Input
Amino acid sequence: MSKRLLDPTSERQAGTARERAKRRGALGGKHVALLDISKPRGSVFLDRVEELLRARGADVSRFSKPTFTKPAPVDLRHEITSTCDVVIEALAD
Amino acid sequence: MVPDGLVAVVKRGCPTCELVAPVLAQLHDQLTIYSQDDPTFPDGIGAHDDTALDVSFALDIDTVPTLLRVQDGHVVDRVVGWERAGWEKFTGVDDLGAGLPDWRPGCGSRTHDPDVVDARLVASIMPHLHARLVELGDAEDESEAMYARGWSDGLPLVPPTPARVARMCAGTSRDPSEVVAVVPPDLVECTVEKVAINAVMAGCLPDYLPVVLTALEAACTDAFNMHGLLATTWLSGPLVVVNGPVTRTIGMNSGVNALGQGNRANATIGRALQLVIRNVGGGRPGEVDRATFGNPGKYTFCFAEDEAGSPWESLAVERGLPEGASAVTLFAAEGVRGVVDQLSREPESLARSYAACLRTVAHPKNIFVWDAMLIVSPEHGRVFRDAGWTKSRLRQELDALLQLPADEIVRGAGGIAEGMPEALCQPGTTLPKFRPGGLLITHAGGSAGLFSAIIGGWASGAVGSEPVTREVRT
Output
C-alpha cells in the first residue's frame, strides 16, 4: 500500500511568480524613486545615481526604509508606486 | 441505538465475564448483550457485535461486565462487575449464578485500551485536517522522498502521516485550522495543523506542541523580526528559552549539557520552529536566508532555564510574566562562547570577567547595536548567591563596567579601522556596550564547571530584533 504524508509546506503553487513590470524605456522625463534601505553608506551610492539620472533629464525622489532588516512598510510601497514610474533600491555597506 | 431494558456489556477476554456466562445465558430472554471483542461470546447465545466499541463509548463503559438499565434511550442505573445480590436486585431474578462466588471485580473495558483511545482520537481529528495529501509510490523510500521534496533541514525527518499529525494536534486545545502566525519570508498564514505537521517531522511529542506554537507566535511578531533574522548575512538564528512548569512537564533539560544534544524536547522544539520557517514561510538557505556562515543553532536552539537552582528570578518573570507561568523567550542568537573564570570567589571579580568577555560580542569596538545573553552556571551563580547579589545588582555592575572609553572604540583606534564613528566618540567620554535591555541574564547548566556562557545577538531593537517573551497557551 502506498504511503500518504501531509504536506508541510504552504502549498503555494509553483510557477506563480509575479510578472515583471512593463519596461519604461529611456528614463528622461520619468519620475524615478531612489529607495535607500538604510544601510550605512547607501546614500553615497544613491547620491551619485541621482546625479546621473538628473543629468539624463529624470525627475528623482528619495525614499528610505525605517530599517534595512524589515521589508518596506506598505504605506511606503504605496507612496512610491502611486507617485513614481520606476524605483531603484540600493543596498550598501 | 441501544434498546430499552436490561443491557450487558462484556468481553471474552475477561475472566469475570467468562465466569458469569451461565448467568447471562439464564437472563438471555430479558437481556441485550454487547460483546467488545467476540460476538460469539457468551458461547451458545452470542451477543451484538460491539468490536467497534461505538455502543461501549455511548454507554460510557469503564468495566466489563457492566449491567445497565436503559429507559427512553438513557442509562438510568448500572451494576459493575459481578455481585450476586446486586444483579438479583437489578434484574428481579432470584438465585442467579448458583455455585459462583458472591462477588468478583470486572476487567477494564476495551474503550480504555491505549491503542483504542489513540485510534478514536486520531479518527476524531482526521476530518479536521486539510493539508494536501502527498501520495508516495510503492517503490519510494519515504525518508528519501521527503529529502527530494526539500522538506528537510539536512537531517532525517519523521514522516508526517495523517495519524501522527492528528495525534500531534491533540497536544493543544486549539483548532487545527486556527491561524497561529503569518510566517516570513513569504508571509504565509500558518495554521495549527501546518505547525503540527512540521513538529511531527522535527520529532516532537504532542505535549511539546503548545511550546512550539508559542515560539512561532513570538518569532513572527514585528518586534522579533524573524524576516530580518532569516535574511541577514550575520550568523544568527532564533533561540528559544523556555520557563515555567511546562519545562518539567515535558522533561526539558536545564542542567548538564542544557545547550547541547541529548534531550528530545530541547532538540525538537527548536527544530520544529525552524522547519515551519523553512517549509511554510519559504525561508531557505541561499534564497532569502543569506547568512555568510550560519551557525549550528540554526538546526535547533532551545533550552530551559534552571529556575530551581537559580539565585535569581527567572528570565520570564524578569520580563513581566507572573511566577508559575510557562513562557518562551525568543532571542536572535549567534553561537555560544564560554567564559572561564575558575579563580574568582568574589562577585566583583567575576563581574569584571563577564564584562571583559561581553565586550567582545560582535567586536570589542562595536557598541549598542548588538544584544547578548549571559548564561550563568550553577557554580558561578553560587558566588553571587553567597554574596547576596541580586540579578539587578549584577546588571548594574556590568552596566558600569561596560561603559567603554570613546577613545578606545573610535574608528582607527588601536590600529583597527572597525569601530564607532567619530561623531559619536567625544574624546574622554564613555559609551555603553549594550543598549538598555540589551543584556539578558539567565541561569542554566550542570553543577560542575566554573564557567558561564555568552550568546551574542544580532542587530538589536527597532533596527533589528527585540527579544520577545510570550506565555505558553495550552
Observations:
- The first strand of chain B starts at residue 5 and ends at 10.
- Residues 264-279 of chain B form the longest helix (16 residues).
- Residues 240 and 302 of chain B are 5 Å apart (CA to CA).
